[in-house]
Structure to design on (109 residues):
């Protein structure tokens, strides 16, 4: 068995990752990407920002944890502490009236 220094064990401080603005008021901080395409990221949505178009989940699902604020998927509001599973093939329109921080995980890329 291996501990925290095992091959493949990865850590990264979010403060060390430069945010990438994907749409006005929406940034992504990539944290990790696995060999199979799986990835983890932090997304920040500024107050009033809206994803441009529909965010499709392909090839696999999207896992969302609302770290702070209130996330809206285009229909429903989700407060801090909420977990969402969006299956492959689904979509939503990420946005927030008050702003939010999300942890995203894509198990299949």
């Amino acid at each position: 068995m291996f501990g925290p220094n095992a091959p493949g064990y990865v850590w990264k401080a979010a403060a060390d990752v430069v945010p990438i603005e994907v749409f006005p008021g929406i940034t992504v901080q990539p944290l990790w990407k696995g060999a199979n395409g799986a990835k983890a990221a932090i997304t920040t949505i500024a107050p009033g920002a809206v994803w441009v178009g529909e965010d499709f989940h392909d090839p696999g699902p999207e896992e969302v944890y609302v770290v702070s604020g209130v996330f809206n998927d285009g229909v429903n509001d989700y407060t801090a502490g909420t977990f969402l599973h969006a299956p492959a093939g689904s979509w939503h329109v990420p946005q927030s009236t008050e702003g939010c921080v999300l942890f995203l995980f894509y198990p299949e890329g």
Observations:
- The chain has a mean pLDDT of 94.
- The radius of gyration is 14 Å.
- Strands lie at 20-23, 26-33, 39-45, 55-56, 62-72, 77-79, 83-86, 91-92, 100-106.
